[in-house]
Amino acid sequence: MKQLGFGDNGFTKHPKTTRKQQFLADMDKVVPWSRLCAVIAPRYPTIGKGRPPFPLEIMLRIHFMQQWFALSDPAMEEALHDMPVMREFAKLDAASDAMPDESTILRFRHLLEKHSLAHQLFAEISGLLAERGLMLRQGTIVDATLIAAPSSTKNADGKRDPEMSQTKKGNQWYFGAKAHIGVDAHSGLVHTVEITTAKSADIKSMDHLLHGEERLVIGDGGYHRNEHMVDAVREGSGPRIVTPFKRKAGHQLTQWQEQMNHALAKLRAIVEHPFRVVKRQFGYTKVRYRGLAKNGAQMVTLFALSNLYQARRYLMPDQGYSV
Fold this sequence. Notes:
By secondary structure, the chain is of the alpha/beta class. The protein has 2 domains: 19-115, no CATH class; 136-319, Nucleotidyltransferase, domain 5, CATH 3.30.420. Helix content is 40%, strand content 14%. Strands 1, 2, 3, 4, 5, 6 and 7 form a 7-stranded mixed sheet that branches. Strand 2 and strand 3 (172-184) form a beta hairpin. It is globular and about 75 Å long.
């Protein structure tokens, strides 16, 4: 009887489709590859002297897999060698194609960072979602989440990242950055992202999270000011700002105020979905790089991909759309 080798899968005539395979198959259909490549193409190196660059779409596919599976540059290189499903998604053939090494993957990421292309990719994806009618732009829910950073480093000075900071939430201290997002109140999709150091107050970023066409803005207690209360209206034709009623020392909220806070909490719950996708689905719970610029570019990319993931059912080609 012929002995099977490690690479011989002849004994699995009907292999099971894994969750990773299904995820990549879905994302392959919904990511607007041609539109995103068109954004990067003017900055991407062309064939000239020296070794020809890898095709742009291949590098973009590899970059997105890094975000989906929380892989470093070396880990991404090894995954391309180890996992046929990732090679297939990247459109690479192990028998005939060279695999991008970690330096090539690193240079592509630096290219995106240098030219702020992550923000342009986010805008292109947001444009696609708007074209599909998934963002109504009448209401925005704002929120923020802390992203931890290493408390120490292995550099020569042994100092922490100077662009990160420490803040207290409840009884717990956190060191790192903060991701602020503005979410469409109808679809739960992110339309604006801002990255700050952890100690930055939520209310300082609120104006940057609005696209300007809102009639209603909803936030939690972190966005509460005297003029930012239930039924408060900004001067002029600005949106109505709605935040929960706060308990004051020696005073209890009325039954109506409690009911309003409860109803508001249900509305605000939709803003937690992008955070869940980024932190749980994509495994992004700690910053990978030093400095806000590099980490900010990664977070913007992650929220753009979370939008595609959340809207995937509406973007599938079998739903009558083409990407």
